[in-house]
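Final report, closing paragraph on structural work. Over the funding period we assembled a curated collection of sequence-structure pairs, and we close with a single example.
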Amino acid sequence: MKKIPTSIYLLIVSAILSVSIGYYWHTAGLDDATVLDAVAAVFITGLPLPYMLGKILPYTRGAQQAKKKDILLSHNSQLAEVGNIDTLILNRHGIVTEGQPYVANLYPTGVSPNTLLSLAASAEKQASHPLGRAIYETASQRGLQLLEASTFNEIPGCGVEAIVGRNSLRVGSLAWLKREGIDISAELITKNDQLAQKGHCTVFVANGKYCRGIIAIDDALSEDTLKAIRKLKRQHIHTVMLTRENKRTAEAIAKKAGIDAAHGQLTTEGKLREIQLLKARGTGVAIVERGQADPEIAKAIDVLIELAPQRESITPEDTNLPAQPQNDHAIFLQSGLLWDFAALQEIGQQTLSRIKLNKIISLIAFILILPPAAGAFYSFGLPFLPAWGSLAGQGLALLLVTINSLR
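Its predicted structure, as stored:
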């Protein structure tokens, strides 16, 4: 059901109030001309014009400020939603980090480093996940011989499994390989803990029933994001990182980046649960994505912030085309930098401040004009405020609202 604007209710109240005042003075014996003038004056006083303009102008002003910073809004009222945000959810790859994962080191067991990388890359050849692509590209750059997989299966949040030759290969998280009954040495588990504490992603490689080693993958922290997080802290915005990766890895990266909280090893359902917990505390929640957002998560949060693609990921034929949002209801930052959200949040708060002051101006004007227009002082010998007087008062209120909105 479509929500009825507040201005419609105010208009109805104005009409009822003016008729009621006119009826009262008519029964009191006043002449029809005075009664009609009182009805007109009260009706003009009650018109919600300052209230309406007091919302439209700040939104328009804020949208213009956002546009100058290359920020696209799907609708101007999003500025109010942004102004109320106090918690910002970040993903790791492409947001907190640069989104260019690379193989940092290899820790084989029972095989050579090249064999470990070759096994993993053979399984990851068809993978779509950034970590899998990093493994495959590294093996290709080193000129390693890769085998074709006869079967391939990518399991979200876990890893990939493939049949290569007569070998069953699994490449993915420690928890997943444990569930699959893979034999993993205590030495590798200890090494995994050490790498996680340093903020590395760890990918385990299993050949048959045995784990053959760990591939450590790193992704440099984004300097632009680090600057933005520091500014968000000054604006009292709480930052939270939600990721599928190891909890220790997530916490280590959050500590380096200055993020307030981090939650790892989360599925989509887990992320939704964390978002619901945040909203249950009364916080306004926004999430930052790069590219298409998960529809379920987009519905759960208050504001969706979409960053433009990184320059490295844009194809040569698209370099001269303006970046386009992938989500219809998202706020789109064309710069691709989180820093612009901090600027947008300031614009949103300024917009809310202007709207609040405009409401106060509208209310004061109504309180000052209504009594003389309704004849509240007639019994003391003072005349009714004529209709033109109410119109002048409304004009003054509109002028003050306009000045406040455009400052």
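The chain has three domains: 6-55+352-406, 71-98+221-334, 102-218. The first strand starts at residue 71 and ends at 72. We thank the funder for supporting this effort.
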